[in-house]
Amino acid sequence: MTDSQNTTRADNLAWVAGSDAPEKCMLNLGFMPLTDSASLIVAATQGFAQPYGLTLNLQRQSSWASLRDKLLCGELDAAQALYGQVYGIELGIGGPSAEMAILMGLCQNGQAINLSEPLKRVGVTSSEALGRHVRHDGARLTFAQTFPTGTHAMWLNYWLAAQGIHPLRDVDTVVVPPSQMVAHLKAARIDGFCAGGPWGALAVEQGQGFTLATSQMIWPDHPEKVLGVTREFVERYPNTARALTMAVLEASRFIDGSLENRRSTAQLISGSDYVDVPLSAVEPRFLGHYQDGLGNAWEDRHPLRFHGDGQVNMPYLSDGIWFMTQFRRWGLLRDDPDYLAVAQRVQRLDIYRQAAEALGIEVPPLMRSATLIDGRTWDGSDPAGYARSFPIHALAGNARAIAL
């Protein structure tokens, strides 16, 4: 901890006194066994919450559906959540509906699409070969993702479509909790998966498959996990929401602060209470060192990030809107919602701005732009037109049922 960080903490002790004191001091914080849960684990275990009057009780979850259910019933106060998962709940897509809130982004990048060892043996080791295998050889492959409205479903759909493979017609998809992906691959129940770390790296390490694409290849510095709560929680405990955001912001800044901090964080989260895998499956990609299982190694230009001077943590309106465009694209929404209005409800920019400004973290513009793998630029300006613009989509179809 640097002297300036200690000074910042001391200055912000004022937030735990008087009218700014947290209304609720002990919080149950849900997380999944993933490398990108790091900021929550660090905040809870390394002294970042106590200065704000909080005690964070970490509770590891077995699936995103279980995490959702516990968050909605109040068993969890806040949780690591998939960006698209929060919007799916807000819009009532195929499951429990509730008014939701995103306090901040937790990370960018760091997810992977892996294929199986049997596909490797028959030469399906590139996107072109996969396209030929599916479209011309008539192979019916099964891919796993982690939650129907979640980020991994959207990355998988987007990437397949960019290769000319229709994700709803040309392949089958199933939902599998991230920690079970490698076992399903080994048992030949699936031919590939999209999930967060360390599961892509572990599949490579165990000789069960190879990484064909990373999520940052699809969208460099894409939105990924968020700190999610119900809107009722924010309205009932606004000081607590702000204090929690500040604690996790400080933890995020700490992780990205140095290579040493990253190494120590990788060591921490690999432990049995958290991700529970060998450090060798966590640390390399945590540090941006990639091996794909095909003999290729590289230093990633867009590695898993937790802070990036606040660029990672900002709950951009355009990020939330993008996921809704994909719901519309794939028939999960029958009609266009009021994209901007929904995002303005869900993204709690007021809470984030208060927390960031108190910590001296710059608050960037509410919209950002990016060019994705298919060459299309997203800037949030015309979401309805963007959703309709793709050559591969399912806009005319009915919303698919989701029962998880």
From TrEMBL:
Subcellular location: Endomembrane system
Superkingdom of source: Bacteria
Keyword Protein biosynthesis recorded: no
UniProt-recorded name of the protein: Putative nitrate/nitrite ABC transporter substrate-binding protein
Segments traversing the membrane: none
InterPro entries registered for this protein in UniProt: NrtA/CpmA_ABC-bd_dom (IPR044527)
Keywords assigned: Cell inner membrane, Cell membrane, Membrane, Signal, Transport
Organism of provenance: Metapseudomonas resinovorans NBRC 106553
Entry GO terms, CC: endomembrane system
Record-linked Pfam families: NMT1_2
Classification via SUPFAM superfamilies: Periplasmic binding protein-like II
